[in-house]
Each structure stands twice: as structure tokens, then as C-alpha cells.
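Hi R.,

As promised on Friday, here is the backbone we talked about, encoded as C-alpha cells. Could you run it through your design pipeline when you get a chance and send me back a sequence?
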């Protein structure tokens, strides 16, 4: 097969993957805390040419997904268990597979009166323990620093915990796990003491629908151009073969 066909196929594969990533961004435009993604591609000059040539053949390969952790808009929900982070940091939740990190602050209370995420995973305090709420004391209140309080006896207010907000030196270390959760993949988080959280709000995704629609159109057109190039190359090859056959 002609090298041009191989190069074209490699590009089509990365364009298909880019299309999947852009479509996934659009599908999660309303997912709280979702971070927009883009495909990283690079050339692969290590694959040898199918025929001897002095010119290097560079194929296009998928080089993982890049993620933009920029701040999403904070949306008012008036739900006292919804929490949005302003600035850097991630909530820590305990899953059966270990601690995971998320920007999705849509919390609730489970049957054990623990603060949990929407998947039922306990939300961890700054000290690394579950946050237990007393249902007899009414609604909870949260300070900007993540301090959680409830009404105590004689009209007093008692602190029952503090949201654990973690920060990472390199966000590239985080690996997406599904359900809007990230695995630290061996990276050590540091506790954030200057985090600002907002009760009754959730962080929207930072996906810009117009940008993603434009990406989809651009990717589709690029795929069509590559397909046309491959078709023209195949036509030229067939024409050359026919001429050689007649000459022989």
C-alpha cells in the first residue's frame, strides 16, 4: 500500500478520536464540575517507510487527552448540600477503590447520616474522616473555608467537620476514572487551607458549546479532505498500473 494511504489512515484515526472527544464535551455541557478535554496528537517518525526513500515518513498518532481545569461558572441552586469551589482544589471522596477527587459538589446525606457525593461515596473531612451529620439538628451551614456547622444545644452552633479540599502540584498527574472522579495516580495531594467554597452553589462545566460545535465542523471537514486525498492517491496508483500494463 502507498505510504500516502498509510499516513491518511493514521490521520483519520486521530480525527475519529478527536470527534469522540468533542462529542463527549458537548454531552457533558451540563455536568457539574466537568472539565473540557482535547486530543493531543504528534507525529511518529519511528515507523519505517513501506518502500526505500530518502524522505522520512511521519504518521499521526494519538498522544492522550489534555484537560483544561479552568474555573467553571458557579451556579446558584439554593440546595444547602450543594457546594462549589472557587479557585484551585478538589473535594476528596472515599470510594471502594480508594480516595478519589472531584469538582462536583452535588452532595447529599446517606442512611448513615454521612455527607456523600451523588454516587454515594463518603465526602472526606480535612482530617481524612467521613463527615457525619446529626439529623435532629436541622440543616447544616458551611463557611467559606469549608467549615461545616449545625445548631447545638441552647441555640449554640457547633462545628461538625471541615470539607477536605486537596491541591496537586501537577494536575497532569490526575487520571480520569469516570463518574466525574479523578485518581491521583500516585501523586501526593496537599491540603488547601485557603480554599473558598460556596454553599448552595455548584460549579458548572467549563465547556463552551459554540467552540465545541465549531470543533466538530472543523474535524468533519478535515476528515473529508483526508478521504479525498486518499481517493485521489488510489486513482493515481490504478492509472499508473494500467499504463505500465499497456506498456508491457
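Update: got your reply. Pasting your designed sequence below so it's all in one thread:
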Amino acid at each position: 500500500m502507498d505510504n500516502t494511504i498509510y499516513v491518511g489512515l493514521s490521520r483519520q484515526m486521530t480525527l475519529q478520536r478527536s470527534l469522540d472527544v468533542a462529542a463527549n464535551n458537548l454531552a457533558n455541557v451540563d455536568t457539574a464540575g466537568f472539565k473540557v478535554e482535547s486530543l493531543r496528537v504528534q507525529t511518529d517518525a519511528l515507523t519505517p517507510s513501506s518502500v526505500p526513500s530518502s524522505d522520512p515518513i511521519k504518521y499521526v498518532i494519538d498522544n492522550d487527552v489534555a484537560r483544561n481545569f479552568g474555573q467553571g461558572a458557579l451556579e446558584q441552586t439554593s440546595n444547602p448540600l450543594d457546594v462549589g469551589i472557587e479557585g484551585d482544589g478538589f473535594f476528596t471522596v472515599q470510594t471502594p477503590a480508594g480516595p478519589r477527587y472531584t469538582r462536583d459538589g452535588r452532595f447529599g446525606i446517606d442512611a448513615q447520616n454521612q455527607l456523600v457525593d451523588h454516587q454515594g461515596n463518603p465526602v472526606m473531612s480535612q482530617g481524612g474522616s467521613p463527615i457525619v451529620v446529626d439529623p435532629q439538628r436541622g440543616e447544616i451551614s458551611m463557611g467559606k473555608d469549608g467549615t461545616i456547622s449545625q445548631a447545638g444545644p441552647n441555640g449554640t452552633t457547633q462545628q461538625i467537620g471541615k470539607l477536605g479540599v486537596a491541591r496537586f502540584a501537577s494536575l497532569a498527574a490526575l487520571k480520569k476514572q469516570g463518574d466525574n472522579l479523578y485518581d491521583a495516580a500516585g501523586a501526593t495531594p496537599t491540603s488547601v487551607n485557603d480554599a473558598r467554597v460556596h454553599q448552595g452553589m455548584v460549579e458548572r462545566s467549563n465547556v463552551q458549546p459554540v467552540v465545541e460545535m465549531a470543533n466538530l465542523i472543523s474535524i468533519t471537514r478535515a476528515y473529508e479532505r483526508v478521504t479525498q486525498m486518499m481517493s485521489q492517491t488510489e486513482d493515481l496508483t490504478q492509472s499508473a498500473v494500467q499504463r505500465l500494463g499497456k506498456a508491457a
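One thing I noticed while checking it: Residues 83 and 199 are 5 Å apart (CA to CA).

Thanks again,
M.
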